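From the pipeline queue, job 12 of 40. The input is one protein chain; the requested action is below.

Action: predict structure.
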Amino acid sequence: MLYYDGPNEIGYINQINGTPLNLQIGNSTKLEINKFGTVTTGIATATSFDSTSSSTFNDRVYWKSSGTTKMSTLASNAGMNWQDSVKAEFGNSGDLKIYHESGVNYIYGATASPIAFMVNADEKLRITTDGEVGIGTDNPQHQFDLYDIQASSSGTAPVLNIRNGYAGIPDQSNALKSEIRFSHRNHNSAHDFMATRIISETTDNYMQRTFLRFLVANANNDLILKTIMDAESQKLINPVLIGNIEFMTAFIDKHEWSLSKDKLIESYSEEESSKIACEVASRDTGLEKNIIIKGHLHTDVLMGEYIKKEYNLRIRGKRLSHIWFMTFPNDSRNPIIITDGALNISPSLETKKHILSNVLDYIKKISSFNPYVAVLSATEEKLKQMPSSIEAHDLVEWAKINYSDTPVEGPFALDNAISQESAKIKGTLGKVPGNANVIIVPNIETGNALVKSLVHFANATAGGFVIGGKSPVVITSRSDDEKSRMASIINAVICTY
């Protein structure tokens, strides 16, 4: 029935018998309204939605194609239900598509535009057209940029940047620890080494992002400069090169390195380079952190300068010591730390106490490393004719009082320290035998030989650095390859937090 209610000014199309009302074109139904108010469009023939039950079809709109439902809405909760592989397309030419296909859910940017996610009208995550992901920032510059989203909606407080397996960490206080596995690839071979990074958090005002100032003493070597360039390109360090200006400039130009020339300092000898590095490091105000790296020079020259009182780089009540952080290719074992194999030649018991304290302080910065400390000698017994065994015993007794929560045991020969089978055969008891991952060597000869044996016989990577002072010092052999130098740099960075 078609009629007009004049007093109320309402026109009616009324199907009085309760059967569906159909609108047709060319005898083909294009739209149907049933007695429950369900609207179906895109159908070619009348449907049976005129059911006696209203629970299924009440207050719905159905869009169909060739008799198959493609999308439906439910008025009670404003829900929408896409069927099959239909794409919801938005913008011009489908700039944004949302759909399900072949078992995968897609949010698809069809044009060169970023995709952003917002919560409470505030952007929280963005993916750029280059595939860079930012959380707390709308302008990520790396494969992954993490900003403190609580600090501000614009993301002014970076806490982590990652690119190509390396992380750049801002200089902030109240450090929290988190582990990242780093992979350094050299030519066609891959060598994995574990390092722990620091994610820093502050509660109020955040410092602007700064990178560690890395003072390279006597940087007159292609391999050294290549390592520094790689570390700087990963936003890990902020280098200052000390050495022959002509040599360093030629390297920078040859490799098209974007390092500013004002970060070059002229020097004409190992001694002068060491003095400049220590003098610059002595200006540390606490707002900037400095790390010194030994370039192409002798360790005794650099460290002889470092310990001079005029630079005030030593910490009262502490002695310097060296750490080797050893990792192994294609090996799931935890790293092994060896100390001291490069600085203290024949340390006394008192010096060994500092060596132990320094390494345990360093390990506190590594969240996943649980130390099992073996104090090395050539025997498991305390023998008068072997002073190292007596000092090992005394150091263990001191550690029981001062580091009661850390297993420190000895004296041990090397096999009992690292081999459970050897320890079992010899009946060596304790938590450490067969489980040692920190080895306190009796003298520099033992440490040096042990480290270089692992490097050359087991293809280990040795990251070497000096701790116990105000600025860590990267100490590598002049013959060390790039992956060893990079491992040393990463571990020195950890020391600054």
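Job complete. Residues 212-495 form a domain with the Isopropylmalate Dehydrogenase fold (CATH 3.40.718.10).
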